[in-house]
Amino acid sequence: MDIMTDDPKLADIIHPGQEGNVVLLGFPYDTGVEINGGRPGARHGPEKFRSWIRRYGTADNPELDIDLSGITLADAGNIPVGLPLDQSHTALTRQTASIIQKGGIPFVVGGGNDQSYPNACALLDSKPDTPVGVINIDAHLDVRPLKDGQAHSGSPFRLLLEDSRFSGSQFIEFAAQGSQVSREHARYVKDKEGNIIWYSEVSRGDAAAQAFRSALGRLAWECDSLFVSFDLDSIRASDAPGVSCPSVLGLRAKEAFEMAFNAGAHPKVDLFDLSEYNPLIEEERTGRLAVGIFYHFCLGVASRKGA
Ligand code: MN
To answer: How far is the CA of 153 from the centre of ligand 1 (A)?
Structure first.
């Protein structure tokens, strides 16, 4: 490490490019949020996320005894702006797949949660004969039907569950809240053999991080490749106010970091996306939280055996 400082930071060890153990990619679109009736602003997520990276996280963490300079971190930039939504999704699938095919783990920052189906497609395209498992950490199920034939931030996991390459039994909805989920949509997930772990099942004590670890383990039993999708609105509004749809109840920041670390540390996690950071609603607290999730994910990856 050629950093001429006694305090190297996360930002100091991120290099531009598509090749690295973890590769940042931005999806600066909130068209899908607007179609779903949510408040716009998440298109500014990637840009503000990067500005908070410059203010967060030591590269060599003495508390956890993990040095991020043991892995390579890259920033592949953003999907170009100004595309129609379907073309932005196609471009996202292509870029995310390109990172996976170069051996990196994409960490995709939205933007709206509609990014998660194009991201899942990148994994399914890149690993055609591999059983893929998906965990969606979200207050919502995001299995709404398309609107006028268009994908939106409420539909990515319906598109995934309708994709013949994916088996619903390898899908877990994590920390969903019954006050924000229709019975019909919950039934739809179950009809597809998907699993729902309700927020109330993981809201006591340290249950969330523990349940998340066992959810990863359960999927890893049958799957060789895992995608963890994290919607910031699964975190309570006092910790993450800057999301399109804040919720007073939800995961705590500490749990979000532990889960991000566990996702990074799991040897089968090949893809992570983070959705719905909306800096127009609140920038700093949520921005630091989002970057903290990235930081802990990277620490997890650095702790993988052989990393
Ligand atoms: Mn969502």
So the answer is: 6
